[in-house]
Amino acid sequence: MIESANLPDTFPVVAVVGPTATGKTAVSIRLATRLRGQIVNLDSIQLYRRLDIGSAKPTRQERQMVRHHLIDIREPWDVMDAASFMRLAARAIERVVGHGCVPILVGGTGFYLKCLEQGLDMLPGAVPALRERIKQMIRQLGHERVHEILASLDEKRALAIHPKDTYRLIRSFEILLYTKHPRDQVESTALLPVRRYRFFKIGLMTKRERLYDRIDRRVDQMLEQGLIQEVSGLLEKGLDPGLKPLQSIGYRHIISYLMKEKELDQAIMEMKRDTRRYAKRQITWFKKEPGIRWFDPERLLNAPDIWKAVH
User: Among 18, 35, 82, 259, who pairs with 102 as Cys (CB 3.0-4.6 Å)?
Assistant: First the structure.
C-alpha cells in the first residue's frame, strides 16, 4: 500500500479529462493558476523522455508557468504498468498537497484515472507456465485430490469452490503458488492506492466536426514543429521501433514512413484517421464514467473566472 503522509482522511483532487485535442493543457493551466494548483500528468506517453512533439507535451513555457509532475520520468524502453503509475501518481498527489497546493490531474488515459479513483486489482494475471503445471497435476491426481491439497493450504478458498470447478481450482492454486499466500490475504492488500481522494472531474468536449478539425490541425502542427526529425533522432539513437511508446499514435506512423513502408502522405492520413478513432474510444470511455461535468473548452478559456465557470 502507499505510505501515508500527514494528510487528512480525504483531500480534493481536480481532474481534467476528455478526448485528445480538446485543449486540456490550456484549461488545466488556467485552473492551476486560479487555484494555486500543480499538474499531475495522466498521459501514458508524456511519461517518457524525448517523446515530446508526438505526445503533445506542455511546452517549456507552460511548464515554467505551472509545476508539472510525471513528465519525462522514464526512458522509452522502461516498462510502466498501471500499478507502477498509481504508486507514482499517489506520491505526486501527496507531494502537491504537502506543498499546500491543489493537485490537478490532466490527460486522456482514462484507465489511469479510474485506477486512482477506484483502486487496481493487484491479483496476479494468468501465468501460463504455472497454469500448465497445475493442469498437469489435475490430470495426474484428479480433481478431488487437488482440491484436498488446496484445502490443506487455503481452507477458506477450498470451501468456496466445488472440486469439479476446474477453472476456479486452477486459478486458486495459481494465486496460491504465485503469491505464497492464501487468496483472502492477497485480496486484503490487492487495491492500490489508498482511497483517500475526493475527485472533482471536469470533462472537455466539443462538437464532433470541430474536434476532428482540431485533430487534423494538431497533426499538421506537429509536423511543422519537427515530428519527423524527432522520430528520426530517436531511431538514430538506436531505439527499437517496436518499443511500446514508439508504437503509439503518431510515432508508429512516422516510423512507417522513415522505414519506407509508406509514403508520407499516406502516413499522415493514417495518423489523422487513427487519432480520430482514438478520440472516439476516449469519448466512449469517459461517457461511461460517473461524476464528470462536461464543458466546452473554448467557453471555459474565455470565462472571466474559470473556477466559477466549472464549480
Answer: 35
Give the neighbor-by-neighbor strand order of the sheet with 11-17.
Answer: 68-69, 37-41, 102-106, 11-17, 197-204, 292-295
CA distance 50 to 243: 14
What is the Cα–Cα distance from 169 to 146, expressed in whole angstroms? 8
Q: Which helix (H) or strand (E) holds 57?
A: none
pLDDT by residue (tens digit) across 168-201? 889 888 888 887 877 777 665 555 544 567 899 9
C-alpha–C-alpha distance, residues 278 and 142, integer Å: 48
Asked if residue 74 lies in contact with residue 80, where contact means CB atoms within 8 angstroms, the answer is yes
Q: Write the single-letter amino acid at 251.
A: Y
Cβ neighbourhood burial of 234 (10 Å; 0-12, 13-18, 19+): buried
DSSP codes, 150-203: HHHH-HHHHHHS-TT-HHHHHHHHHHHHHHSS-HHHHHHT-EES---EEEEEEE
Residue-wise pLDDT for 195-251, tens only, equals: 567 899 999 999 999 999 999 999 999 999 999 999 999 999 999 999 989 999 999
Q: Rounded to whole angstroms, what are the CA distances from 204 to 6, 263, 285?
A: 33, 34, 13
Q: Which domains does the chain have, with CATH numbers?
A: 11-121+193-310 (3.40.50.300), 128-188 (1.10.20.140)
Measure CA 293 to chain center. Answer: 20
Tally DSSP H helices, then E strands, for the chain.
15, 8
Q: Does 90 or 273 have the greater pLDDT score?
A: 273
Beta bridge partners of 14: 104, 200
| Between 311 and 8, residue with greater pLDDT | 311
Query: What integer pLDDT is reported at residue 4 of this predicted model?
Result: 35
- Tell me the pTM: 0.77
